[in-house]
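Anyone? Bumping this.
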Amino acid sequence: MTDTEAVPEPKASPPQTGVEPAGEDLPEDLVAVAPDILANSLGEYFGAWWKRIRNGESGALPILAGLILIIIIFQVQQPKFLSSGNIVNLFVQAAFFILLGLAELFALILSEIDLSVGFVGAVGAAITAALISNPSNWPWWAGVIVGLAASALIGAFQGTLITRLHLPAFVVTLAGLLGWAGVLIFIFDVDKGAVGGVISLANNTPVYQLVNSNMSPFAAWVLLIVVVAVYAVISITRTARRRSQGLTTPPLSITILGIVVAGVAGAALVVICNLNRGVLVPLQGVPWVIPFVLAIVAAATWLLGRTRTGRYFYAIGASPEAARRAGISVSRLRTIAFTFAGFTAGLAGLVYMSRLGSISVGYDGGTYVLYAVAAAVIGGASLTGGRGKAIHVLLGGIVIAAIYNGLALLGISTAGTQIATALVLLAAVSVDSLVRNRGSSTTI
Amino acid sequence: MSTEGGHGSAMEPLLQLRGVSKYFGPVQALTRVDLDVMTGQVTALAGDNGAGKSVLVKTISGLWEPSEGQLLWEGEPIHLHSPKDAETTGITTIYQDLALCNNLDIVQNMYLGHELMRHLVLDEGAMEKAARQTLTDLSVKTIRSIRQPVESLSGGQRQSVAVAKAVMSNAKLVIMDEPTAALGVAQTRMVLDLIKRLADHGVTVIVISHNLNDMFEVAERIAILHLGHMVASGPASDFDSQVVVDFMTTGRSDRAAAGVATAAAAKS
């Protein structure tokens, strides 16, 4: 791991805090809400962070704590849980939940819900499968484009119904849940390549290889170093630039800490994936789906955090009226959000199909959509809108996959899995609600 | 910041209403209302519940057009077909609910709807600088960091953000609906000071208020509606609390000073 050191560290001009309106003797109430923006050194920053947690803005901490707890429990029960093979398997399972959770997040941020994402993704995947296999035999990329476009169009269609006819999203997407399940079966009926309600992928198509093929160990390291280096350069120059302009900036040490954490976590992942996890034949390397999902999470983070569209999503979720008065076209953005939800669901459907090498009528989109909501909510999205981050959904998806995977490893039935998921969901929401209520006691 | 208008043109009317009436079916909400809003001054709009204050304000802010009569903006007739029209003209209305997004921070709220962009990405740096400058211009000092979410602000601070947002959009006329209604003593003080500073910056203000103390503190002119009629208007110095209460409750006052244009005087 020499990537972080390799980055030339632009020495930030000495902290110019003169412009900062805040200085000493900070009032307790502000420190409670946004302490980090007032801290100038690493020590102060952690102090502020701790205060923030105590006051209810816990961020990703409860999810991480819960995840660690779940891992410890499973590891004690079944030492194979943290074997490299199972960890890779867990991430691959999580990929589907993460993407479906992200799809749901787009609806949740706007204070809406989309119950159809499970089947919308499957319809897109089934279209792709039908097009790229016998007898159509389209090139894989054309099939993928058409499948994803179909998912996005379905999302746009439902969004249009919701905004133009002023129908509740719950009802429209519930109709979607039922209707697209029917369409999925219909696809299997009309596709001549479907055998017994299953469309299989050829082993040599990239759609199949997305999950079932690995990067070479060397390529994984190169990719990791490039990504971390680019991230480091961007975030350090950004921090330095903001600081030199006298804008609110976290201390440089925090930025560097973030880079180091990302680098170490990435390195750990690559090391684990590069271990030989094969039983009979050697099997090693990072499955392509892992960088694929991380790239999508990064793109969603960028969209939600740095673009006008993302800003408007959060604004509409908190107060549609305020957004409307600010001149934002609320119904257009709602439709866009449902389109994103459909598109991301399409990606999730591809990952699901790639993992199994096929898609079948047995696809349980009704249950998966609830896992998607669970992943988003465990990750801190609020059903009342205006809250939620893509990176937290990543954690939420891993939690769901860990339960799924761990209980299966222990040989516990579906009944047990679903009850456990329910309990974790309730626990996550309760912790979040308890902590948050304590923090917001000062507001109305 | 924008200081067009300034103090020099203090007696130029920015907005004039001439014989404005508004019917809703058979209900007559406003009857031939005349009003002069002077540039750079604070005009208080008073009246009991149902006197037509809200109807008048909504007419000025473009929610609907008057059934009869005319609006003049800087001496020229204008037609406001929508709130958007009013905003392009330079009229911003701050309603009681303030229309802020609690989950966004102060900068994000101030720029909501007209964010600055750089290469397809939000230009946070430029927005933060300009927002800070506006707040400094308005001497809003109690806000510690402009990156704190609005949900962490007090009622008075939220008002300040809403006002700063209006100033930021280069509003020439800011209409405030009961800005101190839900506030405590210190917060009220803060908002009243802010209103005065707005006027100092050359921004014209119309304040709707029930609170006579607040009204006399900030207003240079007072206009009183009673059952849809403009029963009195004139410089605040020509009124006292008793006269205002008389006009608000009965539509007439025996004690009115000579400078006050009353409906009774207009008839005779």
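Late reply, but here is one note on the structure posted above: The first strand of chain A starts at residue 198 and ends at 200.
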